[in-house]
Amino acid sequence: MEEYILVRSDRDLALVYEFFSYEEHKKTIKLEYKGVVYCGLKLSKKTARDRAIMIGWKEITTEYKEWIESKNKEVEPQKEKKKVVRKKTKSKTKPKK
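Above: the chain's sequence. Below: its structure in token form.
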């Protein structure tokens, strides 16, 4: 099932809004995208997405997923380099008697 991500920047983030369509009913969430927090919706039905777009929501599904992937790549820790351990060698000097 595909998930559609939509945002609005003209909403108060302190409030929770409800979205209604024939097939879906969702409450808004705070969604961070490119360093900005938006009022967001995650919808699963295409008809609900279409209705949301008609009433002013902006779909950012592909851009958001690409942004999340690039953000996760930056956060992944780099592989540690193998440490080189030198073997102890015998000294060439003669031991004292």
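The chain has two helices and six strands.
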